[in-house]
Amino acid sequence: MTPVEWRDLVVVGRVARPHGRRGAVIVDPQTDFPESRFRVGSVLYAVRGGQVEQVRIREVRFHRGRPIIGLEGIDTISDAEAFDRSELRVPEEELHPLPEGRYYHHALVGCGVVTRQGARVGVVTSVDEGPGPSRLVIRDATGADVAVPLVAEICVLVDPASRRIVIDPPEGLLELNDLDNGRA
């Protein structure tokens, strides 16, 4: 097995908890493609005992949209407990291509954000999910965070390859969505 760097892998799920006595775990998927990502034979990476391990799915079923997976070599609830709350990752090149106008969140983190007029807003530090559209969390030069809806009407250019996002925010949006002042 070729050594992998944990930081170079992309999160596709998180172990919610062990399930049953035979070493299965319930996964909170963090992918738009859970049925193809979590299937028998798929290889994932997780940290167990401080070491990055390659794990292969030996069985899977879905319950209420969440995969319940059994991993090769993990046969007891004690074995499965070692993965409790662990991230499950894959190499970036194994990600599915997305349709035009859709972006993987990890590809947006680190992008510089400017207004249409060229004023520097800051750098994307995370992408928040919730009701409604996703929101870019942008850290400005002062260290304050501001949330900007990730919608085409506001984010007029999203170019992860060049690490650049151009926004055209309505008047007052950046001040209204200042996360550090408890507004957003």
From the spread of the alpha carbons, the general shape counts as: elongated
Helix content: under 10%
CATH class of the largest domain: Mainly Beta
Radius of gyration: 19 Å
Give the SSE map:
Blueprint: E1 9-19, E2 24-29, H1 34-37, E3 43-48, E4 51-63, E5 66-71, H2 77-81, E6 87-91, H3 105-108, E7 112-115, E8 120-128, E9 135-139, E10 145-149, E11 155-159, E12 164-167, H4 173-176
Parallel strand pairs: 7-12
Antiparallel strand pairs: 1-2, 1-6, 2-5, 3-4, 4-5, 7-8, 8-9, 9-10, 11-12
What do these coordinates show?
With 184 residues, the protein is mainly beta. The chain has a 6-stranded antiparallel beta sheet with strand order 3-4-5-2-1-6. Strands 10-9-8-7-12-11 form a 6-stranded mixed beta sheet. The chain contains 4 helices and 12 strands, in the order E-E-H-E-E-E-H-E-H-E-E-E-E-E-E-H. The model has no long low-confidence stretch (mean pLDDT 90).
Brief account:
The chain is mostly beta strands. The chain is 9% helix and 43% strand.
